[in-house]
Amino acid sequence: MPASETSLFSPVRFGPYQLANRIVMAPLTRSRAGAGDVPRAMTAAYYAQRADAGLIIAEATQISPQGKGYAWTPGIYSDAQVTGWKAVTDAVHAKGGRMVLQLWHVGRISHPDLQPGGQLPVAPSAIAPAGIEAFTETGMKPIPTPRALETDELPGIVADYRKAAANALAAGFDGVEVHAANGYLLDQFLRDGTNTRTDAYGGSIENRVRLAVEATEAVVGVWGGDRVGLRIGPVSTRNDIADSNPEPLFLHLVDRLNALKLGYLHVIEGITGGPREVEGAFDLSVLRKRFNGLYMVNNGYDRTLAMTAIASGAADLVAFGRPFISNPDLVERLRRGAALNAPDMATFYGGGEKGYLDYPRLDEG
Ligand SMILES: Cc1cc2nc3c(=O)[nH]c(=O)nc-3n(C[C@H](O)[C@H](O)[C@H](O)COP(=O)(O)O)c2cc1C
Asked: Residue 234: is its pLDDT beyond 90?
């Protein structure tokens, strides 16, 4: 189909699936998991309400106890978590939806209160994030300087990605997204502002992309490339992340992902949840040109911007974050050009059904 005939509401092929439209629910942490970091029944209801999205990307989910950085986030490393997630994917599939899981290791964005045995969070290098506090069960706390990972610990982290990917398959997901954005572990390895290692995982661009590529390879070994996506925020500074020259870094990463025949690349444009334009930032369209799979964009999209991005061929898919929190029927609202409910930030993280299951649909006035 020529780009001009493709709309936000046209179907699109993702791996073996025909997605009903190009509207994606962005990954959204809601901190509502139960004991053992197991998703609760209300989480199945929440995602099922949004199942008419072409694709749902489930909230960031820790691949291991060490990968956790926020209170009440779900995991995908225990049998109970797999069972909890299975109820969620069943509910979404019953409504005809498609859903991938976002695989997460937070690296240094954590706190001993959230770590097994109260240990220090880990990172490529012992550099503390500036100006960020950790969200723990007992409130916001200063983030300590992390412990630098030993080289011989990295195969274990790659194995955690592999196991988490296999668990996601067992839990009935339709694919997985590797979280390499927003200043978490893989992003910390990518950037020279957080990675000052002198081993094979630091220094050159080739070395700094190594962990992200190895983790993705492990996941692709479980799923095949075409049901795997990877999320990046090349010019975002979220969680005190910085790189001296991100353009060649991310172009090299894209080349490596092309070799793995990845299903999609998910690009946060600008600063996550903030401005889309960043002074001095490189032109992200080079990534669209270079990547061979589906190109998904996110950050501050509204109906007009999203329709233009698809119709012009600038993107294949558009992910919406906050609009999906407050509009369970976002797809229908976008179709009709209807007004959107405003999100209530006070209920973003933690709590129960309020601000989770109770946003009204159009037909509920
Ligand atoms: C409450 C909340 C939770 C979020 N959780 C995640 C997450 O788990 N993983 C992730 O990659 N991004 C996360 N983000 C970022 C969103 O996916 C998205 O990039 C951001 O909200 C910008 O898109 P929007 O303008 O459509 O909201 C979160 C954002 C919000 C507001």
From this structure: yes
